[in-house]
């Protein structure tokens, strides 16, 4: 995929406000109006959608899904060593990628030729954490679908087996051409204007996410989807958690962030953490754009900490006192005092304003790290900054579903969410005069999006999201693992001379 020129980047500035998914006021970039597919999926009546207050304990998942879904016309094809069963109006185009939690293909509408990404989330019955991840992903994509810098969810579908059960969910999403990881690794020249555009759009999406009291917790280049027109969207909310704005505390649970983009306070058991962890990840992404490679590429937790300390220097005693792990405190104090390495030396050709923003994002102390809102106002992003076009989310996200911990209970919530989403988007489309009651959801026309996927190579195994390149696994950041970062660091530190003494 060829990224647009510097001149086109600036031209894109005037168009970006019209790219909001689901916004009735937004105009598509194409001159053609939105189109509709012709499969017959009747939208459920309001009283047919299960409510959380209803007693659904005696219902199987298939009985929860609206019966009108049974007349949906589907067809199957094989891709990525998996069978896809999808809306028959969509024709398979190419494999995009796969990981531990599912696989993604591109498809096009048979009549209109409009592109769509179909993500198949698999292994829902395997482990509770995978069921919860699926539930979390679809709820957050639903909640955030109207922001232009968050991946747009068009539709959802569940295919039940003969026994009335299911083990996979299909998400129909806006088709993007690449992820930022693939672009960085492609070697194509990127200008400072590209860096500004990518970071600004990431921060716009992140501001919206944080304003709903949500932490993404896994921001990395592979989770930033990009088109040739430099439009960027955040994806993959499977690891997201809520946080308390007043107390500035997040849910300190395991399974947080890919190691290379993980904030130090997560590993060091700080008393609390909040939105600063995502800002750290954006700083790591900016550094990777400037250098063309990750800045903190740790082999394990101790090595990750050592690399951070090597570049950022020894933290102050005040910061060290807030490290919750005594062993980590002792380890850091045992190391020689390290001065901070000036970022100007690491990135000698970078814009000085980019260096300044980077230093504020990669502050070891989360209490002193720049916030998302402050970063948007930084002079480095002045050409993009527009307060009127940087909205906050109008409603807080409800993480109450996290209390449900059984696979069957979560699967019922998944079906409820699919019903709710389908009813909502179809009702909105009917109110806008876009579809008839029996029609499925319109897919916005995007003629200026190149239909071809980003690569001809076999997909990279082990990745968790994004549209993957054919690069070796070693060149891509390690996938998030089911771990407790602070406990893992404690275990590794116990093997050092400090732990054995």
From TrEMBL:
<dbReference type="InterPro" id="IPR008271">
    <property type="entry name" value="Ser/Thr_kinase_AS"/>
</dbReference>
<feature type="domain" description="Protein kinase">
    <location>
        <begin position="90"/>
        <end position="381"/>
    </location>
</feature>
<keyword id="KW-0547">Nucleotide-binding</keyword>
<feature type="compositionally biased region" description="Polar residues">
    <location>
        <begin position="461"/>
        <end position="472"/>
    </location>
</feature>
<keyword id="KW-0808">Transferase</keyword>
<dbReference type="InterPro" id="IPR017441">
    <property type="entry name" value="Protein_kinase_ATP_BS"/>
</dbReference>
<dbReference type="Pfam" id="PF00069">
    <property type="entry name" value="Pkinase"/>
</dbReference>
<keyword id="KW-0723">Serine/threonine-protein kinase</keyword>
<dbReference type="InterPro" id="IPR050117">
    <property type="entry name" value="MAPK"/>
</dbReference>
<dbReference type="GO" id="GO:0005524">
    <property type="term" value="F:ATP binding"/>
</dbReference>
<keyword id="KW-0067">ATP-binding</keyword>
<dbReference type="InterPro" id="IPR011009">
    <property type="entry name" value="Kinase-like_dom_sf"/>
</dbReference>
<keyword id="KW-0418">Kinase</keyword>
<feature type="compositionally biased region" description="Basic and acidic residues">
    <location>
        <begin position="488"/>
        <end position="501"/>
    </location>
</feature>
<dbReference type="GO" id="GO:0004674">
    <property type="term" value="F:protein serine/threonine kinase activity"/>
</dbReference>
<feature type="region of interest" description="Disordered">
    <location>
        <begin position="31"/>
        <end position="63"/>
    </location>
</feature>
<feature type="binding site">
    <location>
        <position position="120"/>
    </location>
    <ligand>
        <name>ATP</name>
    </ligand>
</feature>
<dbReference type="InterPro" id="IPR000719">
    <property type="entry name" value="Prot_kinase_dom"/>
</dbReference>
<protein>
    <submittedName>
        <fullName>Mitogen-activated protein kinase-like protein</fullName>
    </submittedName>
</protein>
<feature type="region of interest" description="Disordered">
    <location>
        <begin position="451"/>
        <end position="501"/>
    </location>
</feature>
């Amino acid at each position: 995929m060829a990224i647009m020129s510097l001149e086109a980047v600036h031209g894109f500035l005037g168009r970006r406000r019209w790219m909001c998914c689901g916004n009735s006021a937004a105009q598509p970039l194409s001159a053609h109006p939105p189109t509709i597919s012709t499969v017959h999926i009747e939208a459920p009546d309001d009283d047919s959608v299960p409510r959380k207050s209803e007693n659904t304990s005696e219902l199987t998942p298939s009985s929860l899904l609206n019966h009108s879904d049974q007349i949906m016309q589907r067809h199957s094809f094989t891709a990525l060593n998996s069978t896809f069963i999808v809306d028959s109006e969509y024709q398979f185009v190419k494999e995009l990628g796969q990981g531990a939690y599912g696989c993604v293909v591109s498809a096009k509408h048979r009549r209109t030729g409009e592109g769509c990404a179909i993500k198949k989330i698999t292994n829902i019955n395997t482990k509770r954490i995978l069921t919860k991840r699926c539930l979390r992903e679809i709820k957050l994509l639903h909640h955030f679908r109207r922001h232009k810098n968050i991946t747009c969810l068009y539709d959802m579908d569940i295919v039940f087996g003969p026994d009335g059960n299911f083990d996979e969910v299909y998400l129909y999403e806006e088709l993007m051409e690449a992820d930022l990881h693939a672009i960085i690794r492609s070697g194509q020249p990127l200008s400072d204007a590209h860096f500004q555009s990518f970071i600004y759009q990431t921060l716009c999406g992140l501001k919206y996410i944080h304003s709903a009291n949500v932490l993404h917790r896994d921001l990395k280049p592979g989770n930033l989807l990009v088109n040739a027109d430099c439009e960027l969207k955040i994806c993959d909310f499977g690891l997201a958690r809520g946080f308390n704005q007043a107390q500035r505390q997040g849910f300190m649970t395991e399974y947080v962030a890919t190691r290379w983009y993980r904030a130090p306070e997560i590993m060091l058991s700080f008393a609390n953490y909040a939105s600063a962890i995502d800002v750290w990840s954006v700083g790591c992404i900016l550094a990777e754009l400037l250098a063309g490679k990750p800045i903190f590429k740790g082999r394990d937790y101790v090595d990750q900490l050592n690399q951070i300390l090597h570049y950022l220097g020894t933290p102050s005693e005040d910061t060290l006192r807030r490290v919750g792990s005594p062993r980590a405190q002792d380890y850091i104090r045992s190391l020689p005092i390290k001065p901070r390495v000036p970022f100007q030396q690491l990135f000698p050709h970078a814009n000085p304003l980019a260096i300044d923003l980077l230093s504020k994002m990669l502050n070891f102390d989360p209490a002193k790290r720049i916030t998302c809102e402050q970063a948007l106002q930084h002079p480095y992003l002045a050409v993009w900054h527009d307060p009127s076009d940087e909205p906050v989310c109008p409603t807080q996200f409800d993480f109450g579903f996290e209390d449900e911990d059984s696979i069957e209970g979560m699967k019922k919530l998944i079906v409820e969410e699919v019903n709710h989403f389908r009813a909502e988007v179809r009702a909105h489309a009917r109110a806008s005069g876009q579809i008839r009651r029996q029609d499925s959801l319109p897919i916005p026309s995007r003629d200026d999006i190149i239909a071809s996927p980003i690569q001809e190579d076999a997909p990279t195994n082990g990745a968790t999201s994004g549209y993957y390149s054919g690069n070796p696994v070693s060149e891509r950041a390690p996938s998030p693992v089911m771990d407790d970062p602070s406990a893992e660091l404690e275990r590794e530190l116990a093997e050092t001379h400090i732990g054995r003494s």
